[in-house]
Design goal:
Oligomer: single chain
Helix content: 25-40%
Radius of gyration: 27 Å
Shape: globular
Strand content: 15-25%
Distance between the termini: 78 Å
Number of strands: 22
Number of helices: 14
């Protein structure tokens, strides 16, 4: 017997959708999503089935696609499916295959929902998925938001199976003799999430057999703490961020009284794009000389004598320019950049507007763009890497001047040249260089 009553109660308690909602159910063919589809059918909801073929598992993927089509026919509900060239998408966007699959499916779910008027997208995550997510977040580093796990609802994404754990789902599937298909990649510990599922959680369950129940209780505490923190920060933001005629600012005396300072200051500045590293740098500079500038992609914080001045960054407005392998000339802001390929290992010296690099190291397309927060490079002739933000401070560049500097970036994301100032040590011409590419900047006005 299916747990239809518990299913409906969970949906109603979390206001996931109503009996009149039109639901797009994401079904892979595995036991979790198959059970969700059966519960939606038994509870009388209006839904369609959506299935993605990522073309990563050959005939097995075709089997899954056919199974989901048959399931939709059995339920007499609409079936939506798509074939993705996942590996090509991952290569083009320089992301992992797993991240590519995630981006592709959510983009497609959104498109299908809009086209066919589905109000919500139902995903078959369960309690063990939440545990895996929390452990994964802790492994990679997380704030309190990373501890609340997978939420029952996030926008139009809903997860009506979060009242069940994996063992309960397997028992229900077996007792009701429901057919499903098994994804062979789930048995591989190659991926981080699978490694946690297959190797870490079983060890934790040896210490605590009721692991899922313990995590469920902890999640309630974490979510309450997150709500408490957000409410506190919202009230604090209205008092500590002043709005003057010459812009917004925070008084240093009030910042120093924040407790805990790092957490509260980060939460206050997070909406303006400042990350934890920037906040750490700011705290370490609070009692030093004024004049330091800290920047996010959209805002800057200027450390004044008795205040932190928060202002929107004045951007150059220059759009990034892509440089293909056969490109010979591009324009960027007030500059023209020429590109010359030469068979002789020519080294350009004493000309900050010209650069010669080892052509074998180039990954096209290159990008000519404005600097971004987090950019770093290995300045030629120096040891170690340096943030561009620190490099600009050493060069005594103003905010506006920094926005005009063209930064040449390799196709692998590495900064090769801070145009007009310093090339990167990693791309210099050496005795093993067989061919060089020469870049030269010309000021147009």
């Amino acid at each position: 017997m299916l747990p239809v009553k518990q299913f409906v109660n969970f949906i109603e308690q979390n206001a996931l959708f109503t009996p009149g909602s039109k639901i797009l159910a994401a079904v892979s063919g595995g036991m979790d999503s198959v059970l969700m589809a059966h519960l939606l059918k038994q509870a009388g909801y209006t839904f369609g089935i959506a299935h993605c073929n990522f073309q990563l598992r050959g005939d097995e993927a075709l089997r899954d696609q056919a199974f989901c089509n048959d399931l939709a026919n059995q339920f007499r509900v609409p079936f939506h499916t798509v074939n993705f060239d996942t590996r090509n998408y991952a290569a083009e966007n320089k992301i992992s295959v797993q991240m590519a699959a995630r981006e592709l499916r959510y983009q497609w779910f959104g498109a299908v929902s809009q086209r066919s008027d589905y109000q919500v997208i139902a995903l078959a995550h369960h309690q063990n998925d939440t545990i895996e997510t929390i452990l994964l977040n802790l492994t990679r580093g997380t704030g309190i938001a990373g501890l609340h796990g997978i939420l029952p609802q996030n926008g139009n994404l809903v997860r009506p199976l979060l009242f069940l754990n994996r063992d309960a789902i397997a028992t229900i599937i077996a007792q009701n003799k429901l057919d499903y298909v098994e994804d062979s990649s789930n048995a591989s510990a190659k991926y981080a999430r699978n490694k946690i599922r297959l190797e870490v959680i079983p060890k934790l369950k040896e210490l605590n057999p009721a692991l899922e129940k313990t995590f469920e209780n902890n999640l309630k505490h974490f979510r309450d703490l997150e709500t408490l923190l957000e409410n506190q920060v919202s009230v604090l933001s209205q008092t500590i961020i002043k709005h003057g005629q010459d812009g917004n600012y925070l008084l240093l005396d009030e910042v120093r009284q924040l407790n805990p300072m790092r957490l509260l200051l980060f939460k206050l500045l997070q909406p303006y794009g400042f990350n934890e590293t920037a906040v750490d740098d700011l705290i370490s500079a609070l009692d030093k000389h004024s004049g330091r500038v800290f920047e996010s992609t959209a805002y800057s914080l200027v450390l004044d004598r008795d205040r932190l001045i928060l202002e929107k960054r004045k951007t150059s407005g220059h759009e990034a320019v892509l440089i293909a392998e056969k490109t010979h000339e591009v324009h960027y802001g007030n500059y023209k950049l020429t590109v010359l390929h030469d068979d002789s290992p020519l080294i350009i010296k004493d000309n900050p507007l010209a650069l010669s690099v080892d052509a074998a190291l180039l990954k096209f397309p290159l990008t000519l763009r404005v600097w971004q927060e987090g950019d770093y490079f290995y300045p030629l002739g120096m040891k170690g890497r340096k943030k561009l933000s620190d490099f600009f401070i050493n060069q005594k560049l103003s905010l506006n001047q920094k926005e005009e500097v063209p930064v040449l970036v390799n196709g692998n994301g590495e900064v090769m040249w801070v145009g007009g100032y310093r090339p990167d040590e990693r791309y210099k011409v050496n005795d093993n260089t067989k061919k060089v590419t020469i870049f030269e900047l010309y000021k147009l006005r």
